[in-house]
Amino acid sequence: ASRSFSQLSSQSQRPSFGIAFDIDGVVLLGNTPIGGSNKALKRLYQHSGDLRIPYIFLTNGGGFRESKRATELSKLLGVNILPCQVVQGHSPFKQLFNRFENEFIVAVGKGEPAAVMADYGFKNVLSIDEYASYFDGIDPLAQYKKWNIKHAASENRTFKEMAPTICSQRVQAAFIVSDSVDWSRDIQVLCDILRTGGLPGRETGHQPHLYFANDDLKYQATFPSERLGMGAFRIALESIFNRIHPNPLEYTSFGKPNPLVFQNAELALKQLVLSLCPNAHVVNHATSESHHFRTLYMIGDNPSVDIKGARQAGRPWFSILTRTGVFKGKENSSEFPADLVVDTVEEAVEYILRKES
Ligand code: G3P
Ligand code: MG
């Protein structure tokens, strides 16, 4: 890479701190930058546009490939963000690629969930939109849904020829990549998949695997009070499934506050340092293991997600809570107190740069 940490790093010294920014409620509300985030991020670059301070975005959100999200964030925030600086709720799904590479899987959520999974290497994936369109009558409410555009391909011959194959192919796993757009259809179809062993409309069978990108009960968007997140969808699905099925729902949730996410974030920051260091050619993967950050700052708005996660992860994490999102209190959060509480992300960056100078 031509870009480098030209000031902070030298032969002997690589950056000793890094920053992880939460997105919703810290950097953006919907698609609008908040809390002076544009200004704050610009301070992490040289005048030349080279990165000066290693940072990543660590969001529980998602729905688009990391490369696409990086382009979108670059436009919104006015700095050049690399795909490797975007860690989303669903990013850990790529670690399951070996297990499901050729298995038939279904991807759920807003945006382009199937494209996300295909980008991670999964070869046999359909979005739940497309999958459901192969089953006549699977959603009896579809006709009342004004937004429900018939699947573009549903009238063509290939689609009709494909339907029997798709409907008889066993779904091995369902991945909730991003927030469900149509809870009623998705809960119905997921219950069908999960209670039948992956063959909707058939007899019961062993529950296929189920993965959620995060377990956020709520998050901050443009509306004044918090919105229901993927954790709320999980509760709805789980409550219904457990009423209609003898065995309780089995699932795995990723996203913050899962400790794995903070380990991955540390790794992503180390790799960023190595890929952009001017002396990267003299370091190898062994030294990537040995590169230690003295401090990693997590700037978040949700005490039970961002702050709890950073606290659980322990050193070198240092948690900073902003008041621009889920947390709106005057003092600190009583349940998951942060190491520092500030009004905005701009103040948080100001504090970090002062402390590290
Ligand atoms: O749907 C997104 C939400 O659950 C949280 O996003 O950026 O605050 O981690 P973020
Ligand atoms: Mg947030």
TrEMBL record:
| Example GO biological process | glycerophospholipid biosynthetic process
Q: Which GO terms describe its cellular component?
A: mitochondrion
Q: Which residues cross the membrane?
A: none
Cross-referenced InterPro entries, in alphabetical order?
CDP-alcohol_PTase-I, HAD-like_sf, HAD-SF_hydro_IIA, HAD-SF_hydro_IIA_CECR5, HAD_sf
> Which is a Pfam family this sequence falls into?
Hydrolase_6
Matching entries from NCBIfam families are given as:
CECR5 (TIGR01456), HAD-SF-IIA (TIGR01460)
Name of the molecule in the record: Uncharacterized protein
Q: Which organism is it from?
A: Citrus clementina
